[in-house]
């Protein structure tokens, strides 16, 4: 049985008029943000306020006696007021989730749709204070969804009206399928299909259990096997509505002494955090952009992604399912508790869970991030967290909660013991001296709280591909220090295998309007890749050496061309056990080792380097100079290397 095509969607992405803060009209297509430039350059022109969008569309073909038309927005940041033909349709607070409304009775032959979008400073809609740019705009898809008059629930927090909860009993999968509708004298038929479209189980009822004998598990990056639930609303033999929901069957648990387990076996979680913006386009990403991000994350061999600090595009969650990524999903309850924003934290959490419940990739709901940075009313903040935690457990008893603690929060802070799991944002060795402090801190927390599951939700340091040094040090923003930092952290985590997860901050450089660092204001440069996804920094390859099975060698320092020393250290990253280095065609040396290989190379004029391991090759050119190249050094006027706060 296949999906019955009785629903249709029409994209409303072309031919919009955008009215900016000055009242100037511009023709735009969606996705769109008005902060694509000013939110990324660190200037004083970064605009947070209200702008307007409008478009005109013809009434879609549908039967008003048997069908309804919904208007759906998949992401408008941050507050939206929607008007159709002069009538208010809906108001939505929250810039990262889907919302929709039934517009059937407001449609004319020709329709004028207006959206007022507001990302201004306020005290009730999150986020308001954080280390990333709050882009304004209609930056995800807008659709007309034509559905049967009698249909599965579409009015509850942006969900699809079907909830799938898989469990495992022995070698069988037991799948609970709950569906929601407001139709009298109707029945629900459910057919579970395997990846080949063959029937795996079937039954009927709005809340049923179906068994899949010898179930094929969703097993992470090695085997992310997916089933599909075809759920049909019927009255007798008449089909009223039908939806198809992909799902996966897996078990997982987190042990404070042994870490993360997937399907009964140890499965150490090592991966990255991801922001959704890009150079020149802000958060207005296309599906092609999302796919490229996923391919780059897969290239380094990550098996987990923290999707920070808000709900991401549904398409990216789908990619995580498809490629077996374990996901930490969270809401933008961040940096500062706002007593007037409590309702917004609850509504955003409800949307996050309802819209994403069926994704097998998601294993935890994130309550907040660094909430103790500037919170004044601690009692109200703690109460809000308890309410969120209880809400998550009520809506989804199958997944634990987590949160990310700020470094100054302290291991004894009540916030660190609210959620089921906890992780820390620690930059020891970057914002404070002493990489060794990471070992000390992890060991101390584990000693004091041996029953508490501990992870690192953020760690990293700034690295600019244009800044270099043969003697890198903390705070210099060089590509070389970033590499040294990450080499240490990977070894550190090996020494603490009980950690439930580690997430690099960040996979990509991202815009942070409040920053002025590294000679490029408005940016956070902790990414393993540049903001435009053009340059893989050397640190990218140390992770690939640890995590990826794809054979490779990488010559570090290829952008550090001009070197004033007469003998220079050349570093190679590889996941192969034996590498050789050649200079101007002559063998410098061969080494057996593990991931990091270093060689001393005499410098006299220009030197062509080649790293070799089996079929793997990498080349670069360096040269001796009499004096250091001043372009490689961070200018003092570029800003300090402090955190954004």
Secondary-structure topology with pairs:
Elements: E1 8-11, E2 16-19, E3 25-28, E4 50-58, E5 67-73, E6 76-77, E7 79-84, E8 87-93, E9 99-102, E10 110-118, E11 137-138, E12 142-148, E13 162-169, E14 172-179, E15 187-193, E16 199-204, E17 207-212, E18 218-219, E19 223-224, E20 227-235, E21 238-247, E22 252-255, E23 259-262, E24 265-266, E25 270-274, H1 287-299, E26 304-307, H2 314-323, E27 326-330, H3 342-356, E28 362-369, H4 378-395, E29 401-406, E30 422-425, H5 437-448, E31 454-458, H6 479-494, E32 502-504, E33 510-517, E34 520-524, H7 538-547, E35 553-555, E36 562-563, E37 567-574, E38 578-583, E39 586-592, E40 596-602, E41 606-613, E42 616-624
Parallel strand pairs: 25-26, 25-32, 26-27, 27-28, 28-29, 29-30, 30-31, 36-42
Antiparallel strand pairs: 1-12, 2-3, 2-4, 4-10, 5-9, 5-12, 6-11, 7-8, 7-10, 13-14, 14-17, 15-16, 15-20, 18-19, 20-21, 22-23, 23-24, 33-34, 35-37, 37-40, 38-39, 38-41, 41-42
**Uncertain residue ranges:** 638-645
Shape: globular
Strand line-up of the largest beta sheet: 31-30-29-28-27-26-25-32
What number of domains? 4
Q: Give the termini separation.
A: 56 Å
- Please outline the major beta sheet: 8 strands, parallel
CATH architecture of the largest domain: Alpha-Beta Barrel
Class computed from helices, strands and strand pairing = mainly beta
Please, how many helices? 7
Q: Helix coverage percent of residues?
A: 10-25%
Described by its quaternary structure, the protein is single chain
**Total number of strands:** 42
CATH topology assignment of the largest domain: TIM Barrel
CATH class of the largest domain: Alpha Beta
What is the percentage of strand-forming residues?
35-45%
What is the CATH homology-level superfamily of the largest domain? Glycosidases
């Amino acid at each position: 049985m296949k999906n019955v095509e009785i629903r249709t969607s029409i994209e409303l992405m072309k031919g919009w008029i955008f009215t900016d803060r000055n009242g100037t009209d511009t023709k735009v297509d969606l996705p769109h943000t008005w902060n694509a430039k000013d939110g990324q350059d660190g200037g004083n022109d970064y605009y947070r306020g209200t702008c307007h969008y409008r478009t005109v569309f013809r009434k879609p073909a549908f039967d008003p006696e048997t069908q309804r038309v919904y208007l759906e927005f998949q992401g408008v940041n941050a507050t939206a007021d929607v008007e159709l033909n002069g009538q208010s349709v809906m108001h939505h607070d929250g810039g990262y989730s889907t919302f929709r409304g039934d517009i059937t009775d407001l449609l004319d032959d020709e329709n004028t749709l207006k959206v007022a979008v507001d990302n201004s400073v306020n005290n009730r809609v999150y986020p308001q204070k954080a280390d990333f740019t709050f882009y304004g705009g209609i930056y995800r898809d807008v659709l007309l969804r034509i559905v049967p008059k009698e249909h599965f629930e579409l009015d509850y927090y942006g969900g699809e009206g079907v909830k799938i909860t898989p469990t495992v009993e022995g070698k069988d999968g037991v799948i609970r399928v709950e569906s929601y509708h407001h139709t009298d004298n109707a029945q629900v038929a459910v057919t579970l299909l395997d990846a080949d479209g063959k029937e795996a189980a079937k039954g009927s009822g709005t809340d049923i259990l179906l068994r899949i004998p010898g179930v094929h598990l969703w097993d992470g990056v090695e085997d992310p096997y997916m089933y599909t639930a075809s759920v049909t609303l019927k009255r007798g033999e008449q089909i009223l509505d039908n939806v198809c929901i992909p799902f996966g069957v897996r078990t997982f648990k987190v042990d404070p002494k042994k870490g993360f387990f997937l399907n009964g076996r140890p499965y150490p979680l090592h991966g990255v955090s991801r922001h959704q913006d890009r150079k020149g386009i802000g958060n207005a990403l296309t599906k092609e952009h999302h796919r490229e991000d996923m391919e780059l994350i897969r290239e380094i061999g990550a098996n987990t992604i923290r999707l920070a600090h808000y709900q991401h595009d549904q398409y990216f969650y789908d990619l995580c399912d498809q490629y077996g990524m374990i996901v930490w999903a969270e809401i933008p309850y961040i940096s500062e508790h706002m007593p007037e924003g409590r309702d917004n934290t609850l509504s955003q959490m409800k949307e996050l869970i309802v819209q994403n419940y069926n994704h097998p990739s998601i294993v935890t709901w994130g309550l907040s991030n660094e909430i103790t940075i500037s919170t004044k009313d601690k009692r109200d903040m703690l109460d809000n967290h308890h309410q969120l935690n209880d809400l998550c457990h009520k809506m989804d008893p199958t997944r634990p909660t987590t949160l990310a603690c700020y470094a100054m929060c302290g291991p004894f802070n009540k916030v660190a013991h609210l959620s089921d799991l906890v992780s820390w944002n620690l930059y020891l060795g970057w914002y404070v001296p002493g990489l060794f402090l990471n070992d000390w801190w992890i060991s101390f927390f584990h000693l004091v709280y041996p029953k508490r599951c501990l992870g690192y939700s953020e760690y990293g340091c700034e690295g600019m591909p244009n800044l270099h040094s043969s003697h890198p040090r903390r705070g210099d923003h060089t590509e070389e220090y970033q590499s040294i930092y990450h080499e240490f952290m990977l070894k550190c985590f090996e020494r603490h295998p009980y950690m439930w997860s580690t997430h690099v901050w960040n996979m990509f450089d991202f815009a942070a309007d409040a920053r002025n660092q590294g000679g490029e204001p408005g940016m956070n440069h902790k990414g393993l890749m540049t903001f435009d996804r053009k340059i893989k920094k050397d640190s990218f390859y140390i992770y690939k050496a640890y995590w990826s099975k794809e054979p490779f060698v990488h010559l570090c320092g290829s952008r550090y061309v001009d070197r004033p020393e007469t003998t220079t250290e050349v570093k190679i990253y590889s996941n192969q056990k034996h590498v050789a280095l050649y200079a101007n065609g002559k063998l410098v040396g061969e080494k057996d080792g593990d991931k990091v290989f270093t060689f001393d190379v005499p410098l006299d004029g220009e030197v062509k380097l080649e790293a070799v391991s089996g079929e793997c090759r990498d080349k670069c050119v360096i040269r001796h100079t009499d004096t250091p190249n001043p372009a490689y050094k961070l200018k003092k006027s570029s800003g300090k290397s402090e955190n954004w706060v």
